[in-house]
């Protein structure tokens, strides 16, 4: 499904709507340039899962864990990884078995490790600073997400 958002708050609302449909073990794979809105979308996922913590990008820590929601959220940033082998070295399989949701920024760096992910592609509008074009595909998310 394709969506257009016009603010970070709208992008977060779309993430929250997706979170309502997520099941234990789901992987949300993000594609998008720097500053596209991947972390904003993940903040919405966290809110939709009932996670009260402030969500920040795990750029330097690789993964941030948010265990206090309907499902735990494991927020990965793969920007600094070179391939899927490095992800497995971090314990990727253990995260998948913990019954939470794995949100993976820069997922194109580890595509070999992702089986049947929900893919969220975010593109910035070159003429409108806050407008994002978001496409959600895969997984069990074929229903329209309401903003």
SSE topology sketch:
Elements: E1 2-5, H1 8-19, E2 27-31, H2 38-48, E3 63-66, E4 73-77, H3 84-89, H4 92-97, E5 101-105, E6 118-124, E7 132-137
Parallel strand pairs: 2-5, 2-6, 4-5
Antiparallel strand pairs: 1-7, 3-4, 6-7
Per CATH, the superfamily is: P-loop containing nucleotide triphosphate hydrolases
Q: What is the helix content?
A: 10-25%
Using the coordinates above, name the CATH class: Alpha Beta
Q: What does the overall shape look like? A: globular
CATH-derived topology? Rossmann fold
Summarize this, please?
This protein is an alpha/beta fold and 147 residues long. It has four helices and seven strands, in the order βαβαββααβββ.
How would you explain this protein's 3D organization?
By secondary structure, the protein is α/β, with parallel strands linked by helices. The protein has a single domain, classed as P-loop containing nucleotide triphosphate hydrolases (Rossmann fold), CATH 3.40.50.300. It has helices at 8-19, 38-48, 84-89, 92-97, and strands at 2-5, 27-31, 63-66, 73-77, 101-105, 118-124, 132-137. The protein has a seven-stranded mixed beta sheet. The two termini are 13 Å apart.
Task: Name its key features.
seven-stranded mixed β-sheet; globular; Rossmann fold; alpha/beta; 7 strands; 147 residues; 4 helices
